[in-house]
Recover the amino acids of this structure.
């Protein structure tokens, strides 16, 4: 995660230099490992100098099953936490608002 | 395909000589030996550039220029006036009629070729920009959501797909588009055996990237009903990463076909992403 956040910081700086303000970007922290191995979101925010809008929790079994069945996760298990998180992101997009502070977060 | 140049001149020697010079440069030549024949050939052949004499028995080059400029289909065709008339007033008359450049006879072949090349290059750039602007200005544009990763392997495609399906489940007409030439995985993830739609669009000349072409390349996922533009996973298609104008046109057209367009941009800040990110109404960066 440290490597990813470092690269994200470089990317945001580069976007800023090209005239695309980092404020135009929403950062989503998509976790793919169990929580004990995750970087705390506060630390990621501090390294980035940018707010994290959303956190997606890991769902490796669901991701595997969905890929095997060639079906999106939100369809494979509509009641799953992952499906709920995707729906919340979609609702925020439809509402035209920003997801900050906790609008589409499952946990922070 | 060779660019087509129409030479309109009543002097057959000039037609032959200039035609030969330009043909040797790889251009396709169409010739007309009068103003009226020139207008007819311009309408029929749609040349990329017209080289036009002034003094012709049936119609002067100024009048030919005015008529070309009055025709909406030919008004943007670049014209070089090529004549023995060297006075400033003659040149002014030519520019006032609407020519783009003016050359006096005799001229060195190298100068002729360089002027033709320069005008064709300017014209191509302006024409592409015109096409892009027309597509962007289309009414009822949907919201474009760009999704990209700080690096590869973070689940950008998975998130883009599931947010797109969630939007569709909430009753919003949604298209998902994967802009990752040669690195597509969305089709594989959804069980498609062929993912050629992105390649079929980006490999076209910019002028051919129309709303109809883009709409014709959409495929529908059978269980979710989501409409998709899929990128091939064949590495050879990575060469399409340079098709920036085509990609911009595609996004602008797709945005008119649905209320939401979710664009999977892969990772990092490629030239394609630099082109597309400013077109997005929302940008989501995955870390």
């Amino acid at each position: 995660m440290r490597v990813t956040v470092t690269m994200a910081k470089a990317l945001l700086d580069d976007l800023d230099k090209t005239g695309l303000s980092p404020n135009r970007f929403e950062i989503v922290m998509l976790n793919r490992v169990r929580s004990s191995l995750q970087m705390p979101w506060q630390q990621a925010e501090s390294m980035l100098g940018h707010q994290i809008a959303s956190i997606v929790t890991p769902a490796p079994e669901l991701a595997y099953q969905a890929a095997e069945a060639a079906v999106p996760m939100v369809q494979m298990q509509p009641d799953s936490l992952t499906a709920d998180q995707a729906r919340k992101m979609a609702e925020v997009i439809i509402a035209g608002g920003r997801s900050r502070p906790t609008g589409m977060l499952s946990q922070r | 395909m060779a660019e087509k140049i129409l030479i309109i001149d009543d002097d057959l020697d000039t037609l032959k000589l200039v035609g030969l010079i330009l043909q040797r440069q790889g251009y396709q030549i169409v010739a007309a030996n009068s103003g009226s024949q020139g207008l007819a050939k311009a309408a029929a052949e749609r040349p990329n550039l017209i080289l036009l004499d002034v003094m012709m028995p049936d119609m002067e080059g100024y009048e030919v220029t005015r008529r070309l400029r009055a025709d909406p289909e030919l008004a943007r065709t670049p014209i070089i006036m090529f004549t023995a008339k060297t006075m400033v007033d003659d040149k002014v008359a030519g520019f006032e009629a609407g020519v783009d450049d003016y050359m006096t006879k005799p001229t060195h072949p190298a100068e002729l070729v360089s002027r033709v090349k320069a005008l064709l290059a300017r014209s191509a750039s302006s024409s592409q920009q015109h096409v892009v602007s027309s597509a962007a200005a289309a009414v009822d544009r949907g919201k474009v959501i760009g999704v990209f990763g700080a690096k590869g392997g973070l689940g950008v495609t998975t998130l883009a797909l599931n947010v797109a399906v969630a939007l569709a489940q909430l009753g919003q007409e949604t298209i998902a588009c994967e802009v990752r030439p040669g690195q597509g995985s969305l089709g594989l993830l959804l069980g498609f055996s062929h993912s050629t739609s992105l390649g079929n669009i980006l490999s076209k000349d910019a002028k051919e990237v129309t709303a109809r072409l883009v709409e014709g390349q959409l495929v529908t996922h059978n269980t979710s009903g989501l409409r998709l533009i899929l990128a091939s996973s064949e590495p050879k298609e990575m060469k399409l990463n340079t098709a920036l104008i085509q990609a911009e046109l595609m996004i602008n057209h797709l945005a008119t076909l649905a209320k939401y367009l979710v664009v999977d941009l892969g990772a990092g800040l490629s030239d394609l992403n630099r082109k597309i990110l400013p077109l997005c109404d929302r940008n989501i960066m995955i870390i």
About this structure: The longest helix of chain B spans residues 109-136. Residues 169 and 224 of chain B are 8 Å apart (CA to CA).
